[in-house]
Amino acid sequence: MVVLEVIITLLVADFISGLFHWLEDAFGREEWPITGRLVTQPNILHHHNPRYFTRHGWFHSSWLLLCLGLLVLLCAWLSGFLTWHVWLFVALGVNANQIHKWAHRSPVENGPIITFLQRIWLLQTPRHHAQHHTDPKNSHYCVLTGFVNPILDTIRLWDALEAVIWSVFRVRRRTDNSVVVAGETFSG
Ligand SMILES: [Zn+2]
Ligand SMILES: [Zn+2]
Prior knowledge:
The chain is mainly alpha-helical. The chain has helices at residues 2-27, 35-48, 58-78, 84-94, 96-102, 107-119, 126-130, 148-154, 157-169, and strands at residues 180-181, 184-185.
């Protein structure tokens, strides 16, 4: 039973990582205050130069998620729901960027333990994540494991959410200017 709860918590954390990633990729704007500089600009840079962030240390990549994680812990504690599931969820969420970074590193850079965890599919593999960096870069948003993406992409969840946002708010997803269109890179 505990094993099942661990797996479900992992899958939920993976889904949330994908939800935030999709929001960043589809609707984040560079010019927005705070999130533009902290989230969208690094995100756009990552689509143009996927290996750039691998030179950053853990804190550089994770401090913002650490702040969000502490906020989740505080809210859970204040509302009396601070179970081990929340701790595990936060631990995974705080490390989402780090796990994403591992998917851009070679086995030599990652070392034997991380490489082993990727090989047994407990962590997302570089091969799996490479599909997110394949044009048109609108799938495989979850970054923790390889299990949630195939489900969400098969049911076309992100397309459906974008259609809902368009019909309700008349907002379309932004153009990903790292996507090559008709042989040329978009520049707008
Ligand atoms: Zn992305
Ligand atoms: Zn990536």
